[in-house]
Write a structure and sequence with these properties.
Elements: E1 35-39, H1 51-60, E2 64-66, E3 75-78, H2 84-92, E4 95-97, H3 99-105
Parallel strand pairs: 1-2, 1-3, 3-4
Length: 111
């Protein structure tokens, strides 16, 4: 609990300037307000990222990661062998991105 008149300590994931540790305000990131599902094997520059790494990247860029495709999903990153999750996204009319398209979208935050 913080005493009245004393500012609360910064969140552990927030730098003193109010930005996330990656240096970009998450609410202003390229995926702000989007719910993103990642399915299939990533290729290209994203090949080195684990599923957890992809989910962290989504969140660092302002998005919310989802473990599956639903009506609330706004973007599906569909890698090789995406299968039923890709088919579900197509049926629901959800935007699909290849790993390369997604990498271009978040290029400023890739190592």
């Amino acid at each position: 609990m913080t005493e009245p008149g004393v500012p609360a300590p910064p969140d552990a994931d927030t730098a003193p300037d109010g930005h996330d540790r990656a240096g970009t305000p998450a609410e202003d990131g390229p995926l702000a307000g989007m719910t993103v599902a990642v399915t299939g094997a990533m290729t290209g520059i994203l090949e080195k990222l684990s599923r957890n790494g992809m989910n962290e990247l989504v969140e660092r860029t302002g998005g919310r990661s989802s473990s599956g495709v639903s009506g609330k999903t706004t973007l599906v990153v569909a890698g090789e062998g995406a299968g039923s999750e890709r088919a579900r996204a197509e049926r629901l009319g959800i935007r699909l991105a290849t790993p390369d398209e997604f990498a271009a979208l978040v290029a400023g935050l890739l190592d």
